[in-house]
Amino acid sequence: MLPFARVAIVGMGLIGSSLARAIRAAMPTVRLVVTDADPAVRARVLSLNLADDVADGAGAAAVDADLVVLAVPLGAFAAVMAEMAPELAPGAIVSDVGSAKGIVLDVLGPLMPPHAHLVPAHPVAGTEKSGPDAGFAALFEGRWCILTPPTGADPAAVAQVSEFWTRLGSKVEVMDARHHDLVLAVTSHIPHLIAYSIVGTASDLEGVTEGEVIKYSAGGFRDFTRIAASDPTMWRDVFLSNKDAVLEVLARVSEDLSALQRAIRWGDGDTLHSRFSQSRAIRQAIVEAGQDTAAPDFGRNAQE
Amino acid sequence: MLPFARVAIVGMGLIGSSLARAIRAAMPTVRLVVTDADPAVRARVLSLNLADDVADGAGAAAVDADLVVLAVPLGAFAAVMAEMAPELAPGAIVSDVGSAKGIVLDVLGPLMPPHAHLVPAHPVAGTEKSGPDAGFAALFEGRWCILTPPTGADPAAVAQVSEFWTRLGSKVEVMDARHHDLVLAVTSHIPHLIAYSIVGTASDLEGVTEGEVIKYSAGGFRDFTRIAASDPTMWRDVFLSNKDAVLEVLARVSEDLSALQRAIRWGDGDTLHSRFSQSRAIRQAIVEAGQDTAAPDFGRNAQE
């Protein structure tokens, strides 16, 4: 039996529109209502035929939905929820796809009507592209989706959301929201922050032109530019929403980078070699866990 | 006319063995002699049939060669050159594929016999794999190769090396060695250092297990693990050989990262958004310059 008969998605960017496509592919009988704050996006979603209905706003989308998924930047959660709350049906489940989860409990929790359930979720998947045209149905296949239900959440509601993501091809894990925020600070937020930072540094550096940075980017820099091309609004909100964990991990990153800096300054080759030798095992484990391609250079050099 | 009739390659790792394959493909009549310090690599090169001759050492490989290419870690340059120098034929050209170039002039220059020419080169290409099995002929196609001849270098020798790399599919640029070292510090060395550093940080962090880092790496972290899986010996030598430029750029990286850290701490969303908005143009320019794929997620999600 399908976990939900009627699903609403609020926000039709990369993740929201991928979710719509994935639901269409895996659960074609689900009645799908979507919306987006941007009228141009709503029009595009209509012409792409990504849903059964395109509602004018979050309130209208939420009416009669069994599951409502917020797929907007975290900074918009409170406003969207205020609009939806009066429309939520008894037993409706509110979920989301936000990249920080403590804040979701803090912001959505107090706004939830008592007859509805909150089961936050974070599909750990994405690309550097944005908007409804960038989405695709297979985005969540083989990826992890982390659920962070609040204390005392209805186990049946959690099981339904878990079944939902499993049908979309994801592997599901339930986790405490604060632990999620620390783990994702390491595996996602800090890599994005550093990528954004170093791409900015390279563009502004005296003595090296932007043309040179572009020409010789195949030496490694181009890898950083991919995630640094991700949606700025979404990422601004992630950093504002996961401040404590990001600052905590960032302090460790700075410490470790200083240690390498010192080793370079003093010509300590042994320290460099021993640090550099530890990374291959992690790369190998990520490939073996099916979380990255085994092809050299991400398969960009498909000649071999 | 072929720029060289007899080419020697010292070092048969990823770059040396790719070079051998590329020469075989683009200039099949070139007589190719190769060697490697590791007997197991020499045996493997023989069985892969990557060259006409596999010499026991750099001295033997250099005999009668028109071009000798050093493709060993930078720390081995002096020893290899001392072994080769007495064997170099009159008019022979010594080149290399090292990632730092000031040091190449400093180390090789004084060891060059007066009847031979030094024309250092840096093909800006590679993958995270190592060893003779990892090489492939197309590695240099469409990539830049930077030549850094010393002051007063023979223009004919420079032209020959330029023609050589052009035939292998590369675009050639001539540059001052010190400028090369600053540009590559930005586009290659610092990205590798930061990737190595953050992969180390993630493995050692209290409160987050290595299993969690691996599972949720698709959030961005996995991108960093690719270049952090590169050869530790080669990269140790790069950092020891390009100390000044790396430390200079690293200071700027730390400054810019601190500015973002401050913006997060103080909840300054405008600064974050404005910094994050600058990176897409660079990504786009890199793709348009043919230096990276336009496919989302480096084409790893080939479903769309």
Q: What features would you describe in this structure?
A:
The structure is a homodimer. With about 300 residues, chain A is α/β, with parallel strands linked by helices. Chain A has 2 domains: about 5-175, Rossmann fold, CATH 3.40.50; about 180-265, 6-phosphogluconate dehydrogenase C-terminal like domain (6-phosphogluconate dehydrogenase C-terminal fold, Orthogonal Bundle). In chain A, about 50% of the residues lie in helices and about 10% in strands. Chain A has helices at about 15-25, 40-50, 60, 75-85, 100-110, 155-165, 175-205, 210-215, 220-225, 230-240, 245-265, 270-275, 280-290; strands at about 5-10, 30-35, 55, 65-70, 95, 115-120, 120-125, 145, 170-175. Chain A is globular and about 65 Å long. Chains A and B meet through helix 7, helix 8, helix 9, helix 10 and helix 11 of A and helix 7, helix 8, helix 9, helix 10 and helix 11 of B.
Q: What would the principal axes of the Cα set say about the shape of chain A? A: globular
Low-pLDDT windows of residues of chain A:
none
Which CATH C-level class of the largest domain in chain A is it? Alpha Beta
What is the N-to-C order of secondary-structure elements of chain A (H for helix, E for strand)?
A: EHEHEHEHEHEEEHEHHHHHHH
Detail the topology: elements first, then pairings.
The structure is a homodimer of 304-residue chains.
Chain A (H helix, E strand, L loop, with lengths): L5 E5 L3 H13 L4 E5 L3 H10 L4 E2 L3 H5 L4 E4 L6 H8 L8 E4 L5 H7 L8 E2 L2 E3 L20 E4 L7 H13 L3 E4 L2 H28 L5 H6 L5 H7 L4 H10 L1 H23 L3 H8 L2 H10 L16
